[in-house]
Amino acid sequence: MRVTTAFNRLLVLPGASVTDVSFSPEGVIVTVRLRRRCRVCGECGQLAGHVHGRRLKRWRHLDLGAARCLVECELRRVWCPDCGVRLEAVPWARPGARHTRDFEALVAWLAHQMAKTSIARLLRIGWDTVGNIIERVVVDRVDHARLDGLLAIGVDEISYRRGQRYLTTVVDHQAQRIVWCSPGRNAQTLQQFFDLLGDRKHSIQAVSIDMSGGYQQAIQTAIPDAEICFDPFHVIRLAQRATDQVRRDEWNLHDRSRTKAGKWIKGTRWSLLKSPEKQTIDQLAKLGEVQQANKPLYRAFLLKEELRLLYHLDDPALAAEHLDAWLTWASRSRFEPFVKLARTIRRHRAGILNAIRLGLDNGRLEGLNNRIRLISHRSYGFHSPSPLIALIYLCCSAI
Ligand SMILES: [Zn+2]
Q: For residue 71, what are the contacts with CB-CB under 8 A and spacing of at least 6?
């Protein structure tokens, strides 16, 4: 078998024939010829006219054993009526790329599994190159139909770096995937999403958000008919915070950890915060002690659990009644944190009940958000958010 035939079979580059193979300090250099005769613009893909000279171009391909593999091809510079003079298109690489599609696909696949630094080291490429490749793959492969016919979306914010840097993410509740992601976390950020949707935004019937953000205004302006739902996960988290505040107040009242009682209160934290079915035997025992020894703390625990029950009613039609009873109890509880929480919840009552009626729960999205947090943690040190956004699309969208 001739060497060129062997390499043709080995590399399987679409549309290319191997003409020569040589070894150099940089690795194995495989010279190929484009099989296609017609001239195609590398930028827009339409047929191009005159040839304006030639240029030798190289792409890094998948390694051959321990050696790097470089594909080399002489390309024509062609005149395109729309783009001007451009290098002609090749089937094995994206326009402007210095790596073949196979190589880029490998990087994208690895990006699902491991940190960027590990990829850079394993494949012996620059750190920024990993980011650039991921961005290119995403632009090429992102599903444009993902924005069509959205019915229910969830909007959330995540911090991606220390120093108050946030991304706004939009999730499609039905497909359970991220459909949009952008830096910032205010009404203007979300407005960009509605601008991008254009008329398609009118298909949206419900939006789930948390109670704190500034998204509400943007939603009401852009899609006034959509129902706003306040996410159960965030409501329960606020109740947990209120419980914790009550515990801390009690702790301060008992001279903090300087007394035995104070120390004991400090140790009750998880028994009070976690729901009983998730507690360990020890935590449950502690909860029993609380019930015996400290009535106020136990009452705070019950207040939180009663609010949590709102989302586990046998008959969701009773939710309004349950919520109103809770509001009355909480506002008369004489716990400052719960009185405040009751006020907040009363203001958002309709949206909280909407979430129950429509069954929208960002809890599942919280899983996605955790994944994003993991991704952003693995990629600390991106200079700009755009490679991170590309990575999020890659791992949490439908690519
Ligand atoms: Zn063109």
A: 11, 13, 16, 30, 32, 58, 59, 60, 61, 92, 100
Rounded distance from Cα 45 to ligand 1 centre (Å): 6
**42: nearest Cα among 82, 89, 97:** 89
CA of 47 to the centre of ligand 1 (A): 8
C-alpha 59 to ligand 1 mean position (Å): 21
Out of 89-98, 340-349, 372-381, least confident range: 372-381
Distance from residue 57's CA to the centre of ligand 1 (Å):
19
d(CA 40, ligand 1 centre) in Å? 8
Pick the CATH number of 144-231+361-396 from 3.10.530.10, 3.30.420.10, 1.10.3720.10, 3.40.1280.10: 3.30.420.10
Say what the pTM is: 0.79
User: Residue 204 corresponds to which tokens in the numbers above?
Assistant: 């949206």
How many angstroms does the Cα of residue 148 sit away from the middle of ligand 1?
Answer: 29
Rounded to the nearest angstrom, the distance between the alpha carbon of 141 and the centre of ligand 1 is: 20
Half-sphere exposure of 25 (CA within 13 A, CB side): 0
Tens digit of pLDDT for each residue in 27-59?
999 999 999 888 999 888 899 888 999 999 999
**C-alpha 136 to ligand 1 mean position (Å):** 18
Each residue of 112-163: pLDDT tens digit? 888 888 889 999 998 889 888 988 998 888 888 888 999 999 998 888 777 6
